[in-house]
Amino acid sequence: MNTIAIIGYGHLGKALKRGLLRSGVQKELIFVANNQKATKKVVSSSDIIFLTVKPKVVHEVVYSIKDLISDKLLISAAAAVSVSQIKKSSGNKNLKIIRIMPNIPIAYQSGVIGLYANSYVLPTEKKKIVRILAALGSVIECKKESELDAFTVLGGSGPAIAAFCIMLLIKAGKKLGLSKQVSEQIALQTCKGTITVLQESRQTAQELQQSVATKGGVTDSILQHLHEQKIEQQFVESLELGYDKIKRIKTAL
């Protein structure tokens, strides 16, 4: 069984470890590091290296372990940091690199993970990593590395955006006279139920919306107001701002 190093132990690193443990990976096979001294130690004793640090420190971390990773798989979860930048930091143009963009629900094996492997990763090696990650959620292989930027906005940021929408439902429920507990229960179960319908039926999100929003009814009046306030346009523009932020991070690296 392969040993796994997780370099960087913030929210994503912790989610990754929790998901791996829940998926059946033995605790003894996972090594975690959150400082330079520990990083070199765990990298030396691991076969697969997950990099879950912030983009701005990727160069420093990769450079510090460049002599230890020449024959290992390096899997970077850092947004905006390209394969070419990682190779440059390592000084090894043949380094086997897989970039992934997971999200926090991987902690509960319910995540979605974008994946892109460079040409030096063997098919058998990529298959092994996909198998490990598939236990944490849905794995979607990107045909082009640039697709990971959009994946970061939808998948990486998605849980926070979804949580924001749930918060608004709860806030509205309280304003309408319901308790926080009841509002939360309604909001969570409604979102969960909606996802179940979309996954198990053949309805699209638009079709489901139309089936609930009877013309002239309560739901229709709510959606009409949201449309008049240009909420859809503002929502999409907000995600586009996130996409632009990724571009600026790339420029600053």
What does this protein structure show overall?
Helix content is 55%, strand content 13%. The chain has 253 residues and is an alpha/beta fold. It folds into two domains: 4-150, Rossmann fold (3-Layer(aba) Sandwich); 157-252, ProC C-terminal domain-like (ProC C-terminal domain-like fold, Orthogonal Bundle). Strands 2-1-3-4-5-6-7 form a seven-stranded mixed sheet, sandwiched between helices. Strand 1 (4-7), helix 1 and strand 2 (30-33) form a beta-alpha-beta unit. Helix 3 runs parallel beside helix 4, helix 6 crosses helix 11 and helix 7 (158-175) crosses helix 8. The model has no long low-confidence stretch (mean pLDDT 97).
